[in-house]
Amino acid sequence: MIPWDFVLWFFLGSLVLGLVRLVIGPSTADRLVGLNLVAGQVLALLVLLAVKEDVALYLDVALVYDIFGFLGILVVVKYFTKRRAS
Amino acid sequence: MNPAVWIEPALIFLGMGFALIGNIGVFVMPDPYTRLQASATCSTTSVISVILAAMVSSGFSPTTGKLAIILLYFLVSSPVATTIIARYAWESGIVPWRRPKRRPGEGGSP
Question: Contact at 8 Å (CB) between A72 and B84?
């Protein structure tokens, strides 16, 4: 069988590297790369948690998290390009 | 041997490997463009593997439909977000990283 706890902790542990890049990134583009990666990993984590616990509600949470991660990147890029152009 | 027994752990371990490679690439690479390359490919492949494993695990049920919707949305949104970040990095004046040139006296392979 699949060691679910090990898989979940492995995803959390590998996500820390993306979080470090999100914190220390020198420019805004680096932080956005880290944010995109962390959003994808958290989506995978929520899907795994839904399968492990057999709770289908987590899938709705995963879909909404994915949508808002994409919208967050879009909003940050839009805001900073407008600031730069003016 | 029943293929449904080993195809789900195989997909999950594939996803774990790709997640680790992508995170190490984002942490190590020197430049936003190279970081984008590592992040986009490995994150997309990892999430596709994990969602396929979840679909295999849950069988033919409404959960599989939800997972298909999530996979479809992720396949649309992740490359679009990558393109947006790359265009933003290019327009904000970030120069792509180059391998630093060696000084003429130092030898070594180019």
Answer: no
In a domain, B68, yes or no: yes
Q: Which of residues 39-98 of B touch A (CB under 8 A)?
A: 39-40, 43-44, 46-47, 50-51, 53-54, 57-58, 62-63, 66-67, 69-70, 73-74, 77-78, 80-82, 84-85, 88-89, 91-92, 94
Alpha helices by DSSP H, listed for chain B, are: 3-28, 32-58, 62-91
pTM here is: 0.86
Collapse the DSSP code of A19 into the 3-class scheme (helix H, G, I; strand E, B; otherwise coil) and give the result.
helix
B13 found inside a domain: yes
Tell me phi and psi for residue B101, to 5 degrees: -75, 145
| Per-residue model confidence as pLDDT tens digits over B21-70 | 999 998 888 888 999 998 989 989 999 999 999 998 888 888 899 999 99
- Per the structure, the complete domain to which residue B40 belongs is given by 3-91
The residue ranges of every structural domain in chain A are 4-85
The answer to whether residue B103 is domain-embedded is no
ipTM computed for the complex: 0.85
Q: How many independent structural domains does chain B possess?
A: 1
Please tell me if residue B34 touches chain A, with a CB cutoff of 8 Å. Answer: no
Q: Does A36 sit within 8 Å of B82, measured CB to CB?
A: yes
